[in-house]
Amino acid sequence: MERKLFTALQGDTAQKLNDSLSKQGFRRSQNVLYRPSCAECSACMSARIDVSKFVATRSQKRTLKKNTHLERRATSPWATEEQYNLFRRYLDTRHADGGMADMDVFEFAAMVEETPIRSRVVEYLDRESGALIATCLTDMLDDGLSMVYSFYDPEHQKNSLGTWMILDHIAIAQETGLPYVYLGYWVPGSEKMGYKAQFSGLEIYHRGQWQALNKPEDFEEDTHPLSTAPIAEQVANISIPNSRS
Fold first, then answer.
1. Percent residues over pLDDT 90 in the chain
2. Which of 26, 162, 203, 231 has the highest local Cβ count within 10 Å?
3. What does pTM read for this prediction?
4. Is residue 13 part of a domain?
5. 229 DSSP 8-state letter
6. Are 44 and 25 in contact (CB under 8 A)?
């Protein structure tokens, strides 16, 4: 049974709250911040890349070379028909049975546009044709970039576009002097989440602090029920920024 801690993200302190709770393992979905808090499992752990410790592997360097024909365009968080069409092709091919499979154009627009903080839509276009190939909804934090959701043209799957967008966000963080790229959640033993462990400099939020993920197998025991702190203790340990500061 899934359970989450969540809070509304609104008002003048929304950006500060998002910055603070993102550092404590929370993620944003529209105007809500949430963190998994299941009663008998703590396998979902927030992951981020320490940009200063990242070194591209040979495979990742090949991925960069495969996509030199793409150019980046960062825009305001505004949904377009072209984005939605790409999003639908991506879902129908890659996640047809997922929780977002039935999302219509209005729900897509809400996902992109209902943001009370600094967000950008990062589009990747073919230099020659101008066609939209990939897109990422990205939040700007005080210590990094948070990749909220990304999708791409399934016809270009062989180019490892999911990995490439992460590599490009690492480049953006380096260009802007931001120390981290937040990737969402990593789950030990999950094949769908396994790609995140392939990035050097990866850290996970584990037992109240960020730790380097040097050996993914060391964290498999966190699927055990006794690894989960009581909900009252979890809430008590969350640090909330002072709205007057």
1. 67
2. 26
3. 0.91
4. no
5. P
6. no
